[in-house]
Amino acid sequence: MRASRRPLLVPKLRLGTPERGKGAEVPKRSLGTRSKSVSSPDPSFPRTLTLGRKRLPFPSPPVRARPHAERGDEEECGEQRGGLRNSLDSAGRAVYLIAMAKPESPSASDRRSRRVVVCAHCVLNQNAKLEGLARWPGMIEEAVELIRRSGAGILQMPCPEMRYEGIGRFDKSVEQYRCPAYRELAGEIAREVVGQIESYLQWGYRVPVILAMDGSPSCGIRLASSAPEWRGPVAGQYWKPPRYIREPGVFMAALEEELKRRRIAIPILGIPEGPDLGSMGEVLGALGKVLEGRVDEGGGRGA
Ligand code: SF4
User: Residue whose CA is closest, atom 5 of ligand 1?
Assistant: First the structure.
């Protein structure tokens, strides 16, 4: 097994809520200015976000996104796009933060939660899995139940392997899926999904987490199945079982790249595809935390 651990792409992220009734005092030093503090006018609004050891103010006052054409200010769109706002990490790189722009509901009877969890296709449909690998009859009920109780909706990503080869496919290693055609397909799906995520964020919705599938050569985030020797005729061969490498699968790699390109930071949790690939209890615990807004574990990698 190769053990190349990749660095975290996303800094630690923690939300802070100020005391009600007063504007939050936030050290302005964290933005690189000289004054000591800044007050936010809206006390009902989470105001601080911690990146590693840095506390940064949330947009204040909250920004309501408008379509580019309506604003006619392309310049501003790059810096401050509705629910997204960029800041600098400790290395001085620009990072888009997920800001909670206060939405203006078009109707008082509209009950939406404005929270969307993004899931690998088979979290909701185990029938898409390679035959022999489905651990649940239909949905991964424990995870779906947590999301249901939180009031969030679900954006189900397409299954890249179903699109590529359908349900009658043979097992493949991450090395085989790293062929140009599959990478292109993975990139195409990633652009489509991240485009939808960006739209939600621009309009003040929250996307608290993305659920991946650890062990899959496509949708693993911490682990992908590897068998560099697999090739040639399938029938009658003695196949060495796959090993697991600490790298993302082809589709998750494309998704991370697209999120990074658009400077969107969302934690990604990997549900273990097999019982020996991680603790389901730990993943559910981490999922519960992010859904409750207790995002004190960092980053772009799963539990
Ligand atoms: S892990 Fe990804 S590629 Fe595999 S069945 Fe699930 S959605 Fe499809």
Answer: 129
Q: How many domains does the chain have?
A: 2
Look at residue 298 and tell me if it is in a domain.
Answer: no
Closest CA to 147 of 268, 302, 272, 288: 288
244 three-class SS:
strand
In a domain, 300, yes or no: no
Residue 303, domain member (yes or no): no
Which atom of ligand 1 sits closest to the CA of residue 161?
3
Q: Give the residue, out of 193, 219, 223, with the most ligand 1 atoms within 8 A of its beta carbon, to mutate for a pocket test.
A: 219
Average pLDDT over residues 45-50: 40
CA distance 6 to 3: 9
State whether the beta carbon of 121 lies less than 6 angstroms from ligand 1: yes
Tell whether ligand 1 has an atom less than 6 A from the beta carbon of residue 223.
no
Range of the domain at 70: 13-29+41-98
* Burial category of 7 from C-beta neighbours within 10 Å (exposed 0-12, middle 13-18, buried 19 and up): exposed
| Sign (positive or negative) of CA dihedral 269, 273, 278, 282 | positive
Ligand 1 centroid, distance to 140 Cα (angstroms): 13
Q: Residues 139, 241: one domain?
A: yes
Cα of 185 from ligand 1 centre, angstroms: 14
Per the CB < 8 A criterion, the answer to whether 62 and 101 are in contact is yes
Rounded to whole angstroms, the Cα distance separating 281 from 10 reads 24
For 216-247, the pLDDT digits (tens) are 999 999 999 999 999 988 877 788 889 999 99
Q: Are both 124 and 78 inside the same structural domain?
A: no
Give the global pTM: 0.67
Pair (140, 274) in one structural domain = yes
**Domain contains 267:** yes
